[in-house]
Design brief:
There is one protein chain. With about 100 residues, this protein is mainly β. It has helices at about 10, 50, and strands spanning about 20-30, 35-40, 70-75, 85-90. Strands 1-2-3-4 form a four-stranded mixed β-sheet, with no helix packed on it. The longest helix has 5 residues, at about 10. The chain is elongated and about 60 Å long. It starts with 7 loop residues before the first helix and ends in a 7-residue tail after the last strand.
């Protein structure tokens, strides 16, 4: 028997910055208020993958000094369970820029 170790994520997991652009902020009022921040990336590019259910720290870079008053899900552009950060607090003026 031989043991092999693949350090992969352990080496790079906490060492990078993942940049994404906000494509659109979607809001609904009925049947209940809800908001999504759709980005041009996907959760599947982030270390940890969907099985680990990681929630990454985030900053809306061009609005970093504004108060985070809107609760929204930050989502990726994939078609399957692409939730990057569930229930994130973002500036209410977040918009595609």
């Amino acid at each position: 028997m031989r043991l092999q170790v693949e350090p992969g994520r352990w080496l790079y997991g906490d060492t990078a910055i993942h940049l994404a652009k906000v494509k659109v902020v979607k809001r609904q009022t009925r049947p209940y208020p809800y908001a999504w921040v759709l980005t041009d990336t996907t959760y599947f590019f982030l270390a940890g993958g969907t099985m680990d259910h990681n929630r990454y720290p985030y900053v809306v870079a061009n609005r970093a000094d504004e108060p985070r008053t809107l609760s929204a899900d930050i989502v990726g552009h994939s078609c399957f369970a692409d939730i990057i950060n569930l229930g994130a607090r973002v500036p209410s003026s977040s918009r595609a820029t």
